[in-house]
Design goal:
This protein has six helices and nine strands; from the N terminus they run H-H-H-H-H-E-H-E-E-E-E-E-E-E-E. The protein is α+β, with helices and mostly antiparallel strands.
Length: 306
């Protein structure tokens, strides 16, 4: 707290004071009942750390960003399952999960690994989890489009690791950016031999092989049929005029990271990163039903929503 006594030059001392004040303010908010999820979000926004990672736009910075997003998801999930969730309780639970002191490598255990790390290995039983669109196959990341064929080769590697039994798993919903979002079953499950795959009830797997073809979507891969019954939204969003004037002054641009928006075609979503400036400003938006899309602000029919 004795910032003024630090032996550093004045500009650095001012920055340290601002950081200490921010920590004190957030700590007080947490003590006064603010949720862990909102506190972590405030830390990331006010410190500028997430923005700095996105602006760096390197492989390492994007990996750090993904790790932070997973931390946010874990905190949000923890809060939803605890009536009196606290920071100390969350840290205690995490420490118990990562405790390896009692690990005995001679006892039977489950081995967790990526598909890349499993190359050349085989196991009697294999579980392939996360078979959902924008996860496996992975969605577009780090400004690069997804290579479906490479993802398909990885899926082949994964299924050929099993010696006796193979299990597929996918979620109907998943926490992303601290919010629960619907998931679409991976297209790869439409490509496996239905004669050798059974559901947990013993029935044959139900497949829709034309889900991602351009037969019904006019060449677009946006139309995704879900594998569960889902109520259709009653509210429709009207697309703004095709002519969009993007001429906001500095500081007035409402399309910032974290802002919720609605697209005339893709529906509601949240801005997760942006780059460029002026008429060349681009944003990456995660749409709840359409996944991650990169858009030019001057051309995209986006509107900010509460």
């Amino acid at each position: 707290q004795r910032v003024e006594e630090l032996d550093v030059y004045k500009p650095a001392k001012k920055r340290v004071r601002e950081f200490v004040d921010m920590i004190d303010r957030l700590h007080n908010n947490l003590e006064n009942g603010e949720s862990l999820t909102d506190t972590v979000k405030a830390v990331l926004e006010q410190s500028g750390y997430m923005r700095a990672l996105v602006e760096e736009n390197s492989h390492e910075s994007m990996m750090r960003r993904d790790n932070i997003i997973e931390l946010q998801n874990a905190i949000s999930y923890f809060e939803k399952g605890k009536s009196n969730a606290s920071l100390s309780a969350f840290l205690q639970e995490i420490s118990l999960i990562t405790d390896q002191d009692k690990f005995d490598e001679d006892k039977p255990a489950i081995t967790l690994m990526t598909v890349h790390a499993s190359k050349g290995l085989e196991f009697p039983v294999v579980f392939i989890v996360g078979l959902e669109e924008n996860l496996f196959p992975m969605g577009a990341r780090n400004n690069f489009d997804v290579d479906i064929e490479e993802e398909r080769r990885l899926f082949y590697v994964a299924i050929t690791r099993a010696e006796e039994r193979l299990f597929f798993s996918h979620c109907r919903s998943r926490f992303k950016f601290g919010e629960e979002t619907r998931q679409a079953r991976s297209r790869f499950l439409e490509e496996v031999d239905s004669g050798v795959v059974q559901t947990e009830t013993g029935a044959s797997i139900s497949q829709k092989k034309d889900r991602f073809s351009d037969k019904s979507t006019g060449g677009s891969d946006y139309e995704v049929e879900y594998d569960w019954k889902q109520a259709q939204p009653k509210k429709t969003f009207k697309s703004p005029s095709a002519t969009i004037h993007y001429d906001y002054e500095d500081g007035e641009d409402p399309f910032q990271v974290g802002v919720k928006v609605v697209h005339g075609k893709f529906g509601p979503g949240k801005i997760i990163s942006r780059d460029g400036s002026g008429t060349d400003t681009r944003v990456v938006v995660f749409f709840k039903k359409r996944g991650q899309k990169k858009l030019m602000l001057r051309a995209a029919p986006l509107q900010v929503i509460d």
